[in-house]
């Protein structure tokens, strides 16, 4: 069924079957000659192979390969390049826009799941395959007494995560996942293999990869700096029950959280605030240190929050803290299978210089508390910046990641009523509405300085909006490097830089 839809879609796109069939056959021949055993739409396992995490956005690659070495990735890229077919990597497959399948139908998808090895040296440097998952990476590091900064979902792939950012509870202390990359093993658009590529070998390429990797190469191994695993981590939540807060008081809770994050939270403290359907609000913290230190650090936040919350404070070891922030999910992917969702999300990054105002937050909560929707939605904002944030300690010269002066990073996310298909259009409108309710009152003050996080990619943005929100002033340099490193635009698989 999927295979048939794919053929129909391509016929509609290209208008004539013959050149398409010839190109597909040529791709198949090229990949087979390289020993890559491609899966195409006629293969019995095609449908399951191309099933996206976000069921809302299905795309149909022309062929899928599962290379087991960097040389095999290079051979596949050369096939795509020679035949003018877009080439795209799939790491963990968790792109919000299913970009691991390509931006449009007909791409060559290079699935990196066979390249999942994780090796930790005695000096603590970690070599993580482009197809590894975050949970498996954390476990392998933990076994050597090491840790690094990354997001909370164990199933997310390091491939996309480290390509565009990588934010988690320890990012204010250790920087984003991509801030800790010391070298790349990467295949470039013409199939060139670069192993152990450092900034001193090619500063421009390294800068571009660190924040925009999918437009410049396929990373087969990330080489990371890691940190000594903390002995204790305090994980806490402060929850207001459903319906307890008016929109005015909810805005005060948010403001207290934002002000504390900006002025008082040390870098060892990760902070988030969640808002859920049913009108509940939860602030959460993760702190590297002892309970006594935590109590001192968190006191100013607690004294500024309106009453009525219940608290939970747990003292955990490092790996226990990762399980806790993952909602109790197992960290290992071994013998387990991933779930799927059907959703739309928008991301917002709020500049440190112009935090959210009470008026904007009241408008936001008013919208959330009064707008009917069948979706299952949530909102999350994390403190990126503030006192001593090591995300903001880096300049724009350090990487092509564009957001080094943001206070908050967040997302507004709505799943379909049963988390499966179909996705009602009112759910999408609901997210657009909440984004507008929060941002419209701020647009004048921001004057274009707000941003969006590429790892929470929003495929409804126009090209110009995407340029401004994801890359801002970094875009012109990226566009000129794209022309140098990928002149024929081989890597055009979604959220791609266009050479200029
Ligand atoms: C449930 C869930 C929880 C999440 N939690 C967090 C979080 O806590 N913090 C956070 O920062 N983000 C989070 N994210 C966002 C996540 O970081 C991004 O979706 C990320 O891009 C997924 O990477 P992937 O490899 O799994 O996805 P894929 O779909 O495989 O890839 C995403 C993009 O990266 C490209 N890509 C993948 N691998 C490579 C590679 N090796 N080389 C070059 N390009 C590559 C793909 O072509 C695609 O464009 C979450 C996402 C989900 C779905």
From TrEMBL:
Keyword Signal found: yes
Domain FAD-binding PCMH-type: 57-229
Keywords assigned: FAD, Flavoprotein, Oxidoreductase, Signal
GO terms of molecular function: FAD binding; oxidoreductase activity
Domain of life: Eukaryota
Signal peptide limits: 1-17
Cofactors, names only: FAD
Gene3D superfamilies on file: 3.30.465.10, 3.40.462.20
Recorded family membership: Belongs to the oxygen-dependent FAD-linked oxidoreductase family.
Name of the protein in its database record: Glucooligosaccharide oxidase
């Amino acid at each position: 069924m999927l295979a048939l839809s794919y053929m129909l879609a391509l016929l509609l796109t290209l208008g004539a079957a013959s050149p398409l069939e010839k190109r597909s056959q040529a791709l198949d021949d090229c990949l087979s000659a390289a020993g890559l055993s491609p899966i195409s739409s006629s293969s019995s396992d095609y449908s399951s192979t191309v099933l996206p995490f976000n069921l809302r956005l299905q795309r149909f690659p022309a062929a899928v390969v599962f290379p087991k070495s960097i040389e095999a990735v290079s051979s596949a890229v050369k096939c795509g390049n020679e035949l003018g077919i877009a080439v795209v990597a799939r790491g963990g497959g968790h792109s919000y826009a299913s970009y691991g399948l390509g931006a449009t139908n007909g791409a060559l998808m290079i699935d990196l799941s066979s390249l999942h090895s994780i090796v930790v040296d005695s000096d603590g440097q970690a070599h993580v395959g482009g197809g590894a998952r975050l949970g498996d990476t954390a476990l392998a590091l933990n076994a050597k007494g090491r840790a690094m900064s990354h997001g909370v979902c164990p199933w997310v792939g390091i491939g996309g995560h480290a390509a565009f950012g990588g934010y988690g509870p320890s990012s204010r202390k250790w920087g984003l996942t991509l801030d800790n990359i010391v070298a790349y093993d990467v295949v470039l658009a013409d199939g060139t293999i670069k192993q152990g590529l450092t900034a001193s070998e090619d500063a421009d390429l390294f800068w571009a990869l660190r924040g925009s990797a999918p437009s410049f190469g396929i990373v087969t191994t990330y080489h990371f700096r890691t940190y000594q695993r903390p002995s204790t981590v305090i994980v806490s939540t402060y929850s207001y029950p459903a319906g307890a807060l008016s929109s005015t008081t909810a805005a005060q809770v948010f403001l207290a959280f934002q002000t504390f994050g900006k002025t008082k939270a040390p870098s060892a403290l990760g902070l988030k605030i969640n808002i859920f359907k049913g009108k509940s609000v939860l602030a959460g913290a993760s702190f590297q240190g002892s309970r006594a230190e935590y109590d001192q650090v968190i006191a100013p936040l607690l004294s500024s929050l309106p009453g009525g919350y219940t608290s939970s404070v747990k003292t955990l070891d490092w790996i226990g803290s990762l399980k806790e922030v993952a909602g109790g999910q197992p960290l290992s992917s071994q013998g387990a299978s991933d779930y799927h969702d059907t959703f739309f999300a928008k991301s917002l990054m709020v500049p440190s210089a112009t935090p959210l105002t009470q008026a904007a937050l009241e408008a936001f909560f008013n919208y959330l508390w009064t707008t009917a929707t069948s979706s299952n939605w949530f909102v999350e904002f994390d403190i990126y910046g503030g006192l001593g944030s090591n995300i903001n300690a880096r300049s724009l010269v350090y990487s092509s990641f564009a957001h080094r002066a943001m206070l908050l990073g967040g997302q507004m996310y709505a799943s379909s009523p049963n988390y499966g298909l179909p996705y009602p259009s009112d759910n999408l409108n609901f997210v657009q509405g909440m984004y507008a309710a929060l941002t419209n009152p701020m647009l004048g003050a921001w004057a274009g300085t707000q941003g969006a996080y590429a790892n929470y990619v929003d495929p409804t943005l126009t090209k110009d909006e995407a340029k401004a929100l994801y890359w801002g002033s970094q875009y012109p340099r990226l566009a000129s490097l794209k022309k140098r490193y990928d002149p024929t635009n081989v890597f055009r698989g979604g959220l791609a830089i266009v050479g200029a």
